[in-house]
Amino acid sequence: MRIILVGQGPFGEKVLEGLIKRGENVAGVFCPPDKRGEAMRELSEKSGIDLFRPGHMKDPEVYDAYSSLKPDLAILAFVTDIIPERLLDIPSTGTICYHPSLLPRHRGASGINWAVIQGDTHTGLTILWVDKGIDTGPILLQKEVDIGPDETTGSLYFNKLFPLGVDAIMEAVDLIKNGRAPKILQENSLATYEPPCDDKVASIDWGKPGQEVYNLIRGCDSQPGAYSTFKGGKARFYKAKLLSSEVEKPPGEVIDINKGEVIIALNGGVLRIGKMKSESGEKMNADEFAEQANLKAGMMFGL
Q1: Cβ atoms of 1 and 26 closer than 8 Å
Q2: Where does the chain have alpha helices with state H?
Q3: Angle 9-21/162-177 helices, nearest 10 degrees?
Q4: Distances 107 to 54, 58, 166, 172, 217 between C-alpha atoms, Å
Q5: Are 53 and 33 spatial neighbours (Cβ–Cβ below 8 Å)?
Q6: Which among 90, 157, 179, 221 could disulfide-bond with 152, CB atoms 3.0 to 4.6 Å apart, if both were Cys?
Q7: From CA 147, how far away is CA 104, in angstroms rounded?
Q8: Band of pLDDT at residue 272, cut at 50, 70 and 90
Q9: Which of 217, 98, 85 is nearest to 166 (CA)?
Q10: pTM for the complete prediction?
Q11: What residues pair up with 273 in beta bridges, in sequence order?
């Protein structure tokens, strides 16, 4: 079975590595021309696999390359570019894609973030058959994982959904090769779709219940970093912990600053922040941020 792999970053690299180790016939690799595609480039060249690094997957040369490779299957392993519909018709078996949520819940580019932000206690991954919609194609297989109460988007992805996703793609390839790969239609009435998790959604409203604020911070850790205004700029929060103790302070007020942490009042709780970052600075220990920004107990975020 001739396979085209489209991907980027560490996930794309690990999927390519897995396919090579299994002896799969990888006919071509497509990855971005910038640093996101460097690891896949090195591995492809080392393995003698035809490599393509288009600016965009809609470029005419991509269609020509797809056609010349005569693929049976295309695999999308962490793809942020739009795949033109006409490319989907070329692989004889179809195109499959890794998506880090239990579809049809959390369609869109930030499925992991929104599962955490919305307080889900479990999520997972889906390998789906790609169609012209956004994460709407039939399901091939799914794997479920728990979301711990203090888990962040970063830890959930790298510790669970990344390694499980690589294995799931290999399992999907086996099912396709053996003619046993299902195509389970998604229940559209259960679908949710959220926008990308960026600064449009990462702003903290300190008036919301403490658990919701905590979920937003966890869901935006490590990217883009939930933020609040401070001295006319943005302060971003990471490595947070929700404490059950309550104080009679307005939400958003700094209660205390200790070694390695800043303590902030919430609506129904207390928030301990371990890392912080200014708009122009690097991520650092929260107490170091406080010293640099002249942050003191009694000051307010979000004014």
Answers
A1: no
A2: 9-21, 38-47, 60-69, 85-88, 111-117, 153-156, 162-177, 210-219, 286-293
A3: 40
A4: 26, 22, 20, 20, 21
A5: yes
A6: 221
A7: 18
A8: very high
A9: 98
A10: 0.96
A11: 240, 262
Q: In this predicted model, what pLDDT tens digit does every residue of 63-90 receive, in sequence order?
A: 999 999 999 999 999 999 999 999 999 9
Q: Which residue ranges form the domains of the chain, and what is each CATH number?
A: 2-190 (3.40.50.170), 210-293 (3.10.25.10)
Burial classification of residue 27, based on how many CB atoms lie within 10 Å of its CB (0-12 exposed, 13-18 middle, 19 or more buried): buried
d(Cα 50, Cα 28) in Å, to the nearest integer? 5
Q: 124 pLDDT exceeds 80?
A: yes
- The values of phi and psi at residue 116, to 5°, are -75, -45
3-class SS letters over 70-99: CCCEEEEECCCCCCCHHHHCCCCCEEEEEE
> Nearest Cα to 94, choosing from 39, 132, 131, 146?
131
Task: Say how far apart CA 104 and CA 80 lie, in whole Å.
Answer: 19
Question: What backbone phi and psi angles, to 5 degrees, belong to 202?
Answer: -90, 0
- Report the percent of the chain where pLDDT is more than 70: 100
- Mutual angle of helices 9-21 and 38-47, in 10-degree steps: 20
- For 57, residues 6+ apart whose C-beta sits below 8 A from its C-beta are 6, 30, 79, 81, 82, 83, 84, 87
